[in-house]
Specification:
Chain lengths: 483, 250, 259
């Protein structure tokens, strides 16, 4: 059941991948419907809170503070978690994290593990590593199960299978669960998953989870979920392995009072999601007997080192930016070539990966700002996108790269704008140069080269015979003549 | 009608693309401002605010344009710009750029100059406190809220109030007002397919209003929407808000 | 240093640890001006904490929220808890109910089979019809009930495996806001803690909300009125109406040992 994970290193550039998604009308309908539903719900429950902006500001400040003292808080988390019987491991990169988890799962003697939806394990392609070690990983979140059984890819942070319709899901379940009969209603499909997974929950002795928050003050871990599959994984197996990016740390328990208001309302449009679990190390007769936390860097410290990009790490993975993004709403998540899709993916992926693998992502945005507006921790995503575009340009214009047509055009335009006379000359030149392209009604329907993208779907009206400044000059002259 | 109050010396920053492609917008802005009793000046050394370079990642090319803007407009009593995205560029990014240039003098200049810079509709509603500017335009019109006006400048329903006060106008609200039209500067060519898909949604919403005219505070969005409407031979036209407010009874 | 390394022994682990912490110190914003605790105190918290509704409305709000989640809400006074439990179980047609150690005996009506959870394994729990618990507190703003591993609430598995959850909640345990609740929970923050807001649910299929996936699919709440509101007309020079709340729990402690 191995599937090829989304990998920015091998994924096609965004415009190319987007083109494929745009042709999938079913996918676009599903994505639009799902994002509309969540956005409407979000708007309603956010509107209920007169202190929403104050919560956002507090959320931003808490995350900013946690990053400023991240080293101290991680050490504090480690101390408190271990004092309560947990084991803390540190992983510098994806490879190290995979090795630790595979070793722990092997030591636990499991041939099977149950998994809670975790972006972090997707980020490091953990399932393939487990499989290579002979361990079968079973995704237990309904959407992740659909993705896994359908050998598909997640396309949204919170609702990973939103691109699938009920009919498609039914087909997958019939085939992969070996069922003879299955209704078509979502409730029937959920029931099938409940039955299929309950057997696993009752027998599998190792679980792997991500984490929403790590609390330094208490050494606790907090997981926010809806279906109860999380609770099953956290409570029933003997061994629990939690893997979390180092950015997940919060200073104090009290900080949850902000995050637990921001996250559910932003993520699923609920006042509170059905289940939150908070636990600290081991507890006699309640939960696992072995508990491990893997703290993973995997380039997060590189993001931290960039003053402009740093705010990316405030992210609490709510997915609100995806639902609000007009680009994501057209293409869905797969076009982003990474488990992190949408606006947050467009800034996170290029920073977590080598930029060469993700040069097109910072441009996958019209900079409309809808993402910033809904972000519960006020990440100024458009600002970070522009910052990353500058990095891309620096990379692309190195050496011979400075001769690429776009770079040359930008250079020339820059030169023109630095001088009034050059600007006036360019305006005149433009009028003359476009002449062959203008039709009888005064429109341009085809443009060459890079600009061809424009005329793909739009016409352009011809340049007027007089610029504004020429008109203004003439008027001034006339006025002076009258005076 | 009497709009007499303190007459201002307004310096018009027309923006590079309005200057070249949409001179009628500039003329209309002049007409409205003069009708209200203000004087309009046009510092002729002005070119471009640097937005295209900055937003596309060519920051080195954008930086000199900040200085140029400051030089051209430092003495202005008020600067009016008929483009919300250019004003957003100035307000949100110029201070950042001055920081990158490590130029303290420029930062000080911006602190003085930026509070005097107004987007055209904002100048009318917030600076002058007007809703009715004495315009007449007997047509069916729908208003498109450009993203930078809506989110960066917080224009709110200012432009809508201005339009509502126009004689004879029939203003029809558009579905999905807060949805981006898909222009996004170089986004429209770099991600032409996605931009076109977003445009298709927007032109559908425009057509569904049954309006003859789609207006906005940004000719950049309108050029894109107009391009789509014309390609589909819809007969619906686009017009900058200033051109509607310049309309007079005949 | 990002390469293929075997990580088995402690030294390697401490090496990774040291290196990550070192990277963080090199990367984070320049030397923070004050220590962490002082800086944390400065975080602006201008959101709502204190309740702004009178107690009766807070209870109504909670009820609305619970019903919004399709939970049923029963009312009773402290002396009638057993009767209310019997009504709920009868209506749901549930017989075999798991309870945590420390559940007050006087809660338990006759004619039902209550099994005390003495580390029952998941299979055994799975066979039972439902679970009966008290609660630590509830949050009206969000319709949330919080359970912790204490007498009367028990282990997390016991409220997870059975398909039906009947929860006894005292009016005096109902708070309005999330911040109020978190500040109350701070004292016992390290106990295994579960927040639940309605029965488990998913919207993963075409955004259609489906109640009940893995956790209990059915939730009933018995809201015990242990607060009496005393209202009286005041004399002319006082505000016209005043109300005070008295917890009956403090008057009849035996009736209300919810844990």
């Amino acid at each position: 059941m191995s599937r090829i994970p989304l990998d920015p290193a091998t994924a096609p550039a965004f415009p190319k991948a987007a083109k494929v998604s745009l042709h999938d009308l079913q996918l676009r309908r599903n994505v639009k419907h799902a994002t509309n539903v969540i956005q409407t719900k979000r708007q309603r429950v956010v509107g209920e809170r007169p202190d929403w902006q104050q919560l956002r500001e507090a959320g931003r400040q808490i995350r900013e503070h946690a990053l400023a003292y991240m080293d101290e808080y991680l050490e504090q988390f480690e101390r408190n978690c271990e004092a309560a019987g947990g084991h803390v491991h540190w992983a510098r990169d994806a490879e190290e994290a995979r090795q630790i988890v595979v070793r722990l799962a092997t030591e636990a003697g499991s041939r099977e593990v149950v998994k809670i939806k975790s972006m972090t394990t997707e980020e490091i392609h953990l399932n393939n590593a487990l499989e290579a070690a002979g361990i079968n990983a079973i995704e237990t979140d309904l959407a992740e199960l659909i993705i896994q059984l359908g050998q598909d890819q997640p396309s949204h942070i919170v609702v990973p299978a939103l691109h699938k319709s009920r009919h498609e899901i039914r087909e997958i379940f019939l085939r992969e669960m070996g069922l003879k009969h299955l209704g078509e209603e979502p409730a029937d499909l959920a029931e099938a998953a409940r039955t299929y997974l309950r057997k696993k929950f009752l027998t599998v002795q190792t679980a792997i989870s991500g984490a929403n928050f790590l609390i330094a003050e208490t050494g606790s871990v907090c997981i926010v979920e809806s279906e109860g599959n999380g609770r099953m994984c956290l409570t029933l197996p003997q061994t629990l392995i939690t893997i979390a990016g180092i950015d997940k740390v919060l200073p104090r328990f009290q900080d949850l009072e902000v995050m637990l208001q921001l996250l559910p309302r932003s993520a699923t449009g609920e006042r509170m999601n059905p289940y939150n679990s908070i636990w600290t190390g081991l507890h006699e007769n309640d939960g696992p007997r072995n508990f491990h936390v893997v703290l993973m860097d995997n380039a997060r410290t590189d993001v931290l080192a960039d003053p402009e990009g740093r705010q990316t790490l405030y992210c609490i993975r709510c997915g609100a930016c995806q639902n609000a993004c007009p680009v994501y709403r057209q293409t869905g998540g797969h076009a982003y070539g990474s488990v992190y899709a949408g606006p947050i993916g467009a800034i996170l992926t290029p920073q977590l990966q080598k930029m060469e693998h993700a040069q097109s992502l910072p441009y996958a945005s019209s900079l409309c700002g809808a993402c910033y507006e809904v972000c519960p921790v006020k990440i100024n995503i458009p600002e970070v996108l522009i910052h990353l575009r500058n990095k891309v340009v620096k990379q692309q214009t190195r050496g011979m790269g400075r001769l690429n047509p776009e770079a040359v055009a930008m250079k020339v335009l820059g030169m023109i704008f630095r001088s009034e006379s050059r600007f006036r000359a360019a305006q005149k030149f433009g009028r003359a140069a476009e002449k062959p392209l203008v039709n009888r009604e005064g429109w341009i329907g085809w443009l060459p080269g890079m600009l061809g993208g424009w005329t793909q779907a739009r016409d352009l009206h011809a340049m007027p015979q007089q610029t504004f400044r020429e008109w203004f000059d003439a008027r001034e002259k006339k006025d002076r003549g009258h005076a | 009608m009497n709009f007499r109050r303190t007459a201002l010396r307004v310096a018009l920053f027309i923006t590079c693309y309005n200057d070249t492609l949409f001179p009628e917008t500039g003329k209309a802005a002049v007409r409205v401002l003069e009708r209200l009793g203000h004087t309009v000046e046009f510092p002729s050394g002005q070119t471009c605010c640097g937005q295209m370079h900055w937003n596309t990642g060519y920051q080195a090319e954008a930086l000199p344009l900040v200085r140029r803007f400051v030089e051209q407009f430092r003495d202005a009593e008020a600067v009016v710009v008929p483009s919300s995205s250019c004003v957003a560029m100035m307000r949100d990014h110029y201070p950042l750029m001055a920081g990158e240039l490590h130029d303290e003098a420029l930062k000080r200049d911006l602190n003085v100059l930026l509070p005097k810079v107004w987007e055209f509709s904002e100048f009318l509603t917030k600076k002058l406190g007007l809703e009715d500017v004495g315009a007449s335009y007997p047509h069916k019109v729908t208003y498109h809220a450009s993203c930078h006006g809506l989110r960066n400048l917080g224009l709110g329903d200012g432009p809508i109030q201005l339009l509502k006060s126009v004689r004879g106008i029939e203003l029809i609200p558009i579905e999905g007002l807060e949805q981006c039209c898909g222009f996004g500067g170089t986004f429209a060519v770099k991600n032409a397919d996605v931009s076109a898909a977003m445009l298709a949604d927007k032109t559908k919403a425009v057509i569904d209003t049954g309006a003859e005219i789609c207006t906005a505070c940004d000719n950049s969005c309108l050029m894109h929407i107009e391009g789509g409407l014309h390609r589909q031979r819809t007969g619906v036209r686009t017009l900058h808000l200033a051109e509607i407010l310049a309309g007079e009874e005949r | 240093m990002r390469g293929k390394r075997k990580i088995a022994a402690m030294p390697e682990r401490t090496e990774a640890r040291a290196q990550i912490l070192e990277r963080i110190r090199a990367a984070k914003p320049q030397a923070p001006p004050s220590d962490a605790a002082a800086a944390w105190e400065k975080i602006r918290r201008e959101y709502k904490v204190a309740p702004d509704l009178p107690p009766a409305e807070i209870l109504h709000l909670l009820e609305d929220r619970l019903r919004d989640y399709d939970a049923q809400v029963f009312h009773c006074v402290p002396a009638e808890i057993a009767g209310a439990i019997a009504r709920a179980l009868q209506q749901r047609d549930k017989q075999n109910i798991v309870i945590a150690a420390g559940t007050p005996n006087e809660w338990l009506p006759p004619d039902f089979h209550f099994v005390e959870d003495s580390n029952l394994d998941a299979h055994a729990l799975d066979q039972l019809d439902g679970v009966l618990t008290g609660a630590t507190l509830a949050i009206a703003d969000t319709g949330t009930i919080v359970l912790q591993n204490v007498p009367g609430q028990g282990r997390r598995a016991s409220t997870l495996m059975p398909d039906y959850h009947l929860c006894v909640l005292f009016a005096s345990q109902v708070l309005q806001s999330v911040p109020q609740a978190m500040r109350m929970l701070e004292q016992t923050a390290t106990l295994p803690t579960t927040f639940f807001s309605g029965p488990s649910a998913t919207a993963d299929i075409e955004m259609t909300r489906i109640k009940g996936v893995h956790g209990p699919r059915f939730l009933d709440v018995i809201l015990v009125q242990d607060i009496v509101q005393v209202r009286w007309m005041a004399s002319d020079d006082s505000p016209p109406m005043k109300s005070i709340s008295v917890s009956i729990g403090s008057l009849f402690p035996n009736e209300c040992c919810s844990g």
